[in-house]
Amino acid sequence: MAAGAGMTSAIMNPLHAEEMTGIMGANVMNGHDPECRNWIKRFREPAAVGEGGRERRQTRRRRSA
């Protein structure tokens, strides 16, 4: 893979999902995506309704000290 050999950019079409998936995968493998955050953000399955997640955390009240 060219990215592993030091290639930092390529002439490509960012609208092609397959190409972007490959670039994002290379970023993960080469350590350019800390903690795989961009990969997870892009490919995480949405939470089902009522499953909790962010909506639940936003409605929770903080405890007073």
Characterise this structure:
The chain is mainly alpha-helical. The chain has a domain at 15-44. 40% of the residues lie in helices and 0% in strands. The protein contains three helices and no strands. The chain has helices at 17-29, 37-43, 54-59. The longest helix is centred in the middle third of the chain and has 13 residues, at 17-29. It is elongated and about 55 Å long. The N and C termini lie far apart (55 Å). 0% of the residues are buried. The model has no long low-confidence stretch (mean pLDDT 80).
In the predicted model, the low-confidence regions spanning at least 5 consecutive residues are none
User: Which class do the helix and strand fractions yield?
Assistant: mainly alpha
Number of alpha- plus pi-helical segments: 3
Strands, total number: 0
Tell me the radius of gyration. 18 Å
Chain-averaged pLDDT:
80
The main sheet comes to: none
